[in-house]
Amino acid sequence: MTAPTFETLLYAVEDGIATITLNRPEKLNAFTARMMKELIGVFDITDGDDAVKAVIITGAGRAFCAGADLSAGGATFDRTNPQALEREEGKVGDIYRDGGGRVTLRMYDSLKPIIGAINGAAVGVGVTMQLPMDIRLASTEAKFGFVFARRGITPEACSSWFLPRLVGLQTALEWCYTGRVFGAQEAHERGLVRSLHAPEDLLPAARALAREIADNTAPVSVALTRQLLWRMAGADHPMEAHKADSRAIQSRGAAGDAKEGVSSFLEKRVPAYPDKVSSDLPDIWPAWGEHPFE
Q1: In what order do the strands lie in the sheet with 135-139?
Q2: pLDDT one-digit tens code per residue, 196-210
Q3: Sequence ranges of the domains in the chain
Q4: Is the pLDDT assigned to residue 85 strictly greater than 90?
Q5: Hey, which of 39, 62, 115, 174 has its CA 20 to 30 A from 262?
């Protein structure tokens, strides 16, 4: 497959691992309309490529993402401003859709696990876009900030749903109320990131984790597991999980992957799972992939 080219991203696939790099280093990888569209598009690519077993996202240069590009000055977040409208095209009634939310909703629907390698400053949408990533590793030099109240706006990118689920309501409120920038150690202690690494060790650690997934697990099972755990985070009752789990285990138990998983274990060999995400992903509940905005 020919590698796609982007204006704001770098994209590479090696041995089953896709690496997406935010690539506006001269602007600290600030978020733009173009970056929004390219991030949405790149997850269509990773979902459609059966060679991709896991995805890593990181930033070029010394920042992960410094938030929204503020080059429009005070009009940056004004929905009458053409730059803002381009980033947040689409309306529901008289409300324009938030661009960061369009990205995080697409990440939420990803069929491949997403690992964040947070290499530097990550504020505003630079931190909220991390929330639907499955596992976040950070450089000891990374900094984070939910700075919205200090810019006269509110949290976006569906962070009011994601953030309390990751760190608890009290921490989420403190970070969003104060808008202060905090270091990697606090992010780790409060559960925003899984582990801290010296800058030179960050990507190798992310790749080692991705390698563990790519080399040992059935991609269709991982895709279903990702959707089960994320979707059930908002379920009203465990019965909803029981229904989905039951459909999933019944479907998977009759598939070639389950036969290969058991056989390879008993024969003490590396598994070669036959099923593909692109063609063998079962529909385990009604309204799979449907959202009010689509």
Answers
A1: 9-14, 17-22, 54-59, 114-118, 135-139, 195-197
A2: 999 999 999 999 999
A3: 9-213, 218-280
A4: no
A5: 115
